[in-house]
Amino acid sequence: MRGISIPFVSKRPDKDGGRDAWQPDEHPRHGTGVTLRIAIIGAGAAGLVTAAKLAERGQTADLFEASDRLGAGAASWLAGGMLAPFCEAEDAGPGIVAPGHAGIEWWAATVPDVRRGGTLVVAPARDRGDLARFARRTAGHERIGAERIAALEPDLAGRFGEALFFAEEAHLDPRLALENLAERVTSAGSRIHFGSTVAPQALDHDVVVDCRGSAAAGEIPALRPVRGEMLILRTQDVSLSRPVRLLHPRWPVYVVPRGDGLFMVGATVVETDDRRSVTARGMVDLLNAAYALHPAFAEAEIVETGSGLRPAFPDNLPRVSRDGRVVSVNGLYRHGFLLSPAMADEAVSHILGERLKAAS
């Protein structure tokens, strides 16, 4: 599988018994029956899911979040919330499907309002070649015609002659999900310290889980930031039941319904660490794509614009790595909600020593 076997890099801890000498496979006190002092840096999707997974094993954590409130500046706050392993496999490879499916099941069991209505992928008539190419590079879909499109999404009736329907995919509202997780982990005894910018080695906890995302670029080899821009539109003239992806050679886009006439439209992909607000070009591209999906979006109210930096490795797949007592979970790129449960499982297994014990 392309990387999403979840690459793990282990740098053996110091031999002098210093603060970097944590060895979970050699310390039985670190089993599930004993409480560890665990710190998590970052309260985005990766950090909160890791805290939730630890809570399932009877562990609590101190979460240190640089921003002054939940979601401020976090890539996961600006996410579309699509749980789309088959669609994402078009770019990431088929290895993403199994952990992505597990992610859907975990989210559905953990937070309310996970919508399991699938994903619809469409293309303008002139770009049907892109739809055929997407179909060849993915699985888990049904090729459907205009009548079925109209049955699934009546407001798209007559606009597209064919589409791909990925029935097993899902979506959620990322902001509601993050708020739910924050409440869940604090109710279980974890604490979130907002406005706290800390370095992993500066903390004296038994284990530090580094979930800083793009903020760790420059410290983690090969990690880079990738800029993304999004819009939230409001209109009562369009109704969608599921995320719709519009394929286009220049600006593929997705539109995700959020309820109450709100739609998230995203997202650009720009190889830069530029932290500016949404650019004029980015907004025009996203609005043009939304208009191509349905002309009623031309009269929609622009409720919010946002831009952020996604963390990515060269293969655009996430990694768990360990350096002494620091475990890093990073590189989730466009797959933060889809793959954070699998990555958190991997991190927790290392924290509690289970992976190394199983391999011995």
Automatic annotation (TrEMBL):
Residue ranges occupied by any FAD dependent oxidoreductase domain in the UniProt entry: 37-347
Region entry Disordered, spans: 1-30
Keyword terms of this UniProt record: Oxidoreductase
Cellular component annotations (GO), alphabetically ordered: cytoplasm
Keyword Oxidoreductase in record: yes
UniProt keyword Oxidoreductase, yes or no: yes
Name this protein carries in UniProt: FAD-dependent oxidoreductase
Pfam family, one: DAO
Single annotated GO MF: oxidoreductase activity
Annotated Basic and acidic residues bias: 11-29
Domain of life where this protein originates: Bacteria
